[in-house]
Amino acid sequence: MKLENIDELRLALGCADTGSLTASAARLHITPAAASASLKKLEARLGVRLFERSTRSMRITPAGELFVDYARRALDLLDEAQGQLQEGGSQLVGAIRLAASSDLTRRVLLDWLDDFLAAHPGVELQLAVSDTLTDVVRDQVDLALRYGELDDSRLVARRLATSRRVTCASPDYVARHGLPSHPSELARHECLSFVIRGRRVLQWPYARNDGSETCTVRVHGRRSADDAEIVHRWALAGHGVLCKSEIDVHAHLASGALVRLLPDWQGIRLPLHAVMPSRRFVPARVRALVDHLAERFRRTGMDLEAGTPSGPSLTSEP
Fold this sequence. Notes:
D-Maltodextrin-Binding Protein, domain 2, 3 domains, 7-stranded mixed sheet, alpha+beta, 9 helices
């Protein structure tokens, strides 16, 4: 592909991102007719059909997905080169498409991302906040922060921190409903649940700290949501028991706004990874952001599995 055809790359990317030739043409400040002619010339030069087009829509083909993936990489490389040529090669430039869960973003990441952007004024952040699992390849994300073990061989990942799910509630809730001494007693409590892919997560697994016992409790409660931030707020307001990554509730455990229940029991292990698609070039700006986040987790002591539990805990002992 000759360099003078760089706008054809941008046109193909625009069509893939928007699903619209008209919208892609507007991005490049050209007419839809000119965009259509340019796309036809590109397909003729490549000898493949990149998009299936009708009068109302366009759909990317498998060949188009492959080409767009490489086109995005090529433009990232050009952005990278531009940054390296400026200010002695030290400036990071370009967009970072970051996906992260709602509670993690609001409770932990926002200030850290502000610091990163302040240090790198040439970087643009496109933040996608959702508790729906992101497909970093399909959704064209540069970086996703994801809890849990990874089983997709297409991905490259770096572990940022490791914690466990902790069971907690507000002091007001405990004063009104008492303390469970065993996970099985949670069945009698008002428990706050998450909705994942349309299903409520009602099975909470536990293991005693000394390894002598394991159990899984089916919990119940009147409140559930597919937004972790909402469930977190319900817990702070005293509406029920929360079971969540300690990273997300770290600050409220430390302040006493939430108290840890069942301190002799552990929830499931939750590593937090920075996940990137392996098929695409990883720009220096993305690597720098991953390094920045890893350092912040290290400095704040949020690799919680390796340390002592944060914040106060309550037991049922007198």
